[in-house]
Amino acid sequence: MKGFLMLAGCGLVLLAFASPAVTGEPARASDKAALAECLKYVSDFPGNVPGINDTPTPAAHIDNKIKLSGHEPGSCIDYVTELCSFESDDGQSQLGLIDCADREVSVWEDRLNATYAALMAKAAPEAREGYRKMQRAWIDYRKARCGAEGSAETINTDRQSNIIVSCMLDATAQQALILDTELSELSR
Question: pTM for this structure?
Fold first, then answer.
């Protein structure tokens, strides 16, 4: 019986890595629109938050970060997951949240791939190889990081799947935002 449970747990781990983003299921147009709306809101933010302190002290720095935290592109991570979790009947269940996060991984992966293609098209020929190496190393890093985080949960396989998909979401979104920054710097 213990062997069967381990086999079932391994199957769920493999299933978590076979997310729609990895298996090629396209991102939903409504999810892509929701993320675009969030990122547009963030980019349109004028930046004048009341109470921002110009004094260079650790306390002022932390206070400023807290006041501005909702106005950074990273604030849009988990937005599609949250919308999804409220639109479906099982969105608040463990498996429903995994499905919603998996949908968001697809959206960020789609954005990452489009941005990477634009970056490669715009970059100088000598810079392309560096970007290619960076992206390949990041793919290996994401797989290792999320596998390690998931392997820490050895009892609850639903929780393990949740940990892995959450890691995939965070890592993919962060990398997409890094590539967005790289692309915008090339466009200047």
Answer: 0.77
